[in-house]
Amino acid sequence: MKEFKLDEHQKRQEFQTPEGYFDTFPELMMQKLQAEPRVIPLYKRRNTWIFAAAAVLVLSLALPAINEMNANQQPDQSQIENYLANQDLSQDDIVSLLDEEQIKNIQIDYNLEDTSIEAALPSDIENYISD
Fold first, then answer.
1. SS3 at position 104
2. 100: helix, coil or strand?
3. How many helices (DSSP H) and strands (DSSP E) are in the chain?
4. 101: DSSP letter
5. 38-75: per-residue pLDDT in tens?
6. How many angstroms from the chain centroid is the CA of residue 1?
7. For residue range 8-44, what is the model confidence (pLDDT) as tens digits?
8. Are 89 and 98 in contact (CB under 8 A)?
9. Dist CA 125 CA 123 (whole Å)
10. What is the separation of C-alpha 46 from the centre of its chain, rounded to a whole number of angstroms?
11. Max CA distance (Å), the chain
């Protein structure tokens, strides 16, 4: 392979600018800019009105459907009952949901006969009492 040395090759410029080009460039550019009047196309304004009208139309059609979906999200009575039946609620949770008047109105009637109480007590209760 031939050895390549950069110093041995002649340098040549591929691109050349005309003489005085950069001296007159700002003046030429300003003349071209002043010659072209600025035009604002009307179709852009029309598009914004069309987009705005389309947005209002979509919102007016979507809002009733969204409101109807939110209204139907209330659970049925059976769903509430099933939730309460399967959910573990402590006494503190229940009492926190009741008013003081409702708590006072709660009456529990224990109609227990002596035989049912005796059946519920363990047979060796005498050992616990005597200790």
1. helix
2. helix
3. 7, 0
4. H
5. 777 666 667 888 899 999 999 999 998 888 877 667 77
6. 67
7. 777 777 788 888 888 888 888 888 887 777 777 666 6
8. no
9. 6
10. 33
11. 125
